[in-house]
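The data layer described in this paper is built around a simple, fixed record for each protein. Such a record has a labelled line for the sequence and another for the backbone structure tokens. For reference, a complete record is included directly beneath this paragraph.
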Amino acid sequence: MSAPVSFVEVCNDNIILAGFKESGVILQLIAQGLTFTETGESLFTRGRLNNILCSHYGDIGVAITNISIESFSIYGMNEISIPYIDIWYNGVSGVFNPDEDKLFVRVNSVFGNKIDTYWYDKLSGKIPSYPIFTIPIPSAAADLTGVKQLAITPDGNKLYVPARGTIEVYDAKTGAHIRSIANPNGMATAGIDIVSLIQHSNATPPSLSCVPGAHYADDQTVNGRGVDPNKGVAGKDTFDFRVIYTGKNSIEPTVFLSVDATTTDKKISYSMANYDTAVSLYGNLDTSGMDPKYRNGDYEDGEIFFLQKLFGKGKYDYHFEAISGGETARLTEIGSLKFSAGYSSVAFIPGLKASRLYAQGFIFEDQIWEPNENGDTEQLSLDGNGDSTDVAIYTKTAPDKGLLDEANIIPDPTGALQENFYKSFIAFLDDLKSDGTVNDWRALPYDWRLAFADVLAGGKGIDGKLYYDSSYATSTPYIFQELRDLADTSDSGMVTIVAHSMGGLLTKKLLADIEDNPNHPYRDLLGKVETIILVASPELGTPQALASVLHGIGEDIPRNLGFFTSRGTARALAQTMHSAFDLFPSDAYLSRVKDNGGASTTVISLDSSLAYLTDPSFDGESVLGYYRTFFGGTEITTASALKNFYRGDDGHADAANDDLIHPKLLLPDFLEEAKTLHERIDGWDTDYDNDGEPDSRVVEIAGWGIKDTLKGLRYVGGAVGSDSSTPSVIPSELCTGHESGCTLDVRPIFTTDGDGTVILPSAIAMGEETYFVDLFTYAEDNFINRSHASILEIDSLRNLIGNIIEEKENPIQYLSSVYNKEDDLPKDLGGAYLRISVHSPIDISIADANGNHVGISASSTLERTFYDEQIPNSYFLLFGEGTYLGVPVATSSSYALKIRGTGDGFFILNVAEERGDTVNKTQTFVHVPVIDGMEAKVSLSSIDDLGELAIDEDGDGLADVVVFSDETQADITFDALVSLVENLDTQERKELVKKAEVSQQLFLKGNYEAAYENLLSLRKKMRKLSETVEILRIVAMIDVLTEKMPAEHSDKDHEREDPKEHLGEDDEEK
């Protein structure tokens, strides 16, 4: 200290604050005996420093300068509040009332003197900008720096103010003048204080003092400690009260704790036990660090009394009292100490793409996520290192601005095209705060494009905006700082983290980082996180991330408005997005997740139809043959094989930017960083101090029952390969039947065991305390689909989270669709399910009897394509070159299935009926001709209704041709043909039946050529009749039977007609 100290103030814990008047500097010292040591912490005030006060309740100081009143934290010396004094006035001195909820500040000027009275928050140290009332006072003798020029009585009722020749007395609660006390010698009074007069005797008077030791919280009004902890979880944490009694050994004292519940005004006293006599009865009493003299039975050198007790939710005042031989003692002598029992405040960390992102335009702000045009997503682009090309992109702190509460990318007053994500959850947390269940909650949005390290190091707040780019450096990273503040201001002294989706991985990462760094600036958070609630978190990764990064599939938010961003743009963004790679299935995923009945899970499958596909990179060898040699099979199930595939180590070429079918090659550095992340967090737990017990409660909540949850990718040959429901070898001539020949396609492998994005085992990887949400049953009961992105819109899930926050013993009691055991999930789903996929130029849709629609929406325009999933538990998905939809098998009225041609060529239709993930039946239509405008309609209840398609080729509403599925064709016989013809209602029935029977007899005799010719004749006669569905069905059956003729007797003179040439056939015979 080179400059002379103007004055000092002594605070708690031997902290001394030295004030320098002219420079306005406050320097922190620590007293050790007669030695004073600088701590290195200091504060520069805004004006000329005149006085300092120390609050006894918290570690707060107040500096009074000539222009301001500045509260600050004593530990850290950080500013808290800075109300400014009226112009022309000079701050001189101040005093707290005993309860420290008011601050009186004396200010002087040539225009008159006054006392400004402020509300004061003793917990936070905040002082409002304006006083609650002002007391005019006479002029002072002098403005003496560092001198106390105000005093207040111990009961807080009277305020004493020195003046010229008098001491003025005021009512401290109203400011009214009470009286003047004249100085007998007429001298001016400058300083003033109030002290107690105590009559001393040789006997030891009873007294109470606080227990020294580091285990107790710094919440006292005297220099000592009273309870550990000073904040705790209501009904869960035990509050340990301790006090030292000193008195005569000849008299046994009665020591008790007096508690006042400030929220209910209920007062009660509890008798405290002598630590020395009770230690044998309490095996868990902590005596570490305790001076033995305080438990040796000698009251004259002090004995510890204690009480351990749970408390319900509330804020409490307390003090200690002792009675000994008619004498009493109280701690504190004036006022009370404080503690609170309650529930932890809540921090909500959203998932991938669930924080809105903005950019400032030339005039207006532009929301670029969610996007309403492709250019918005292009603006989000990242460079090769994963850094934003636009460093000024930001999110916002306000929950309804920083979080995806609901889709807002298009104006839609009806709400028909909207989808809620966090809207109800935000309202739920607001209610928890407003009804006092928790003190506070905050959303922690972030720039989800960036690496976790950048997110955790960033978050600079400027006027409600949050910048996470490294160019906006901050010493107080937003997420860490908010977590600490929520904990410190909560009723329990703790914080509960609710993390959705990728937010769970980010939560694990931030806590692991603290744990791994003993010098982490937020190390204290390890003891302040009470509960971590992971909701639908892909802890071990998800195959959905592969579809996104390799092919740009599944990047639409909201899902049914998925075409505001092109898949090419979405894939380009994901290619350099660290967070996308962090969601890849990890090594732990591959070792823990098992396909139904299998020893492993197949993330990438190579279909047998790839035998008909070649690639220039493979030197003319078929794709299937090459991969069989390279990978040793057609199922990629190991980490090393996946790595080879991602990087192109197998030799396959990188896809062009506009080629969304072939997989892109991935950046090795990004893959390695994701691997390193998962190596740390996949085995992470909350046993921070390695004592074998978790230090934070971890709750995992998984969604289940969504039928289009992706568990793998299947690469097939062209539009004619098999999908996951019909694994069959497709003849090579079908591959070459198309103009383009055989081409690659990528198709989904689905499972019910997930929430639409996350496979269930990945969402419960830690397995400590798990809950399961039955999304399938929820949709049935509530007539609305909820999946991964909108899972927090489910009321029973929100109530589960609320029950966990409130520490309820059975948090799922009375909650529907929520279970605490995986075995309780209705995995048979109570009924069958239809999966339908189509390939080539057709649209397909389904509607139920109430008009609920699944497919391309009628609200679509030329510029924007929307789609519907209005039937409960339905899905509609464009994937690779195909369209996929699913609905439960109809149990009452039938569905209306509609197929419409959008071009010329051929189509493939696959239909599977399954229970759980087990396929029971299939119907497959392969190589069916299609022309633009063609329609087919089927009344559909189950897969048995799809044995045939009646196709209207010319759009006149009448069927022109009937096509059988492969499975139906296999069952067609001459007996079936004869039976159908016999049921015709036509005059030519007998002749037609005779021809059919003759054909059958010739076939049975082996006279195939004659049977074949007879069938052709029968077909020609059938075509002369009116083209009813019955007639067309018989014609189709004849076509099937002729194709079944042994090859040497089938000259193929009759082939299936090209649909364009069908109209007008046999006109010359009519």
Remarks:
- The longest strand covers residues 918-930.
- Residues 972-1070 form one domain.
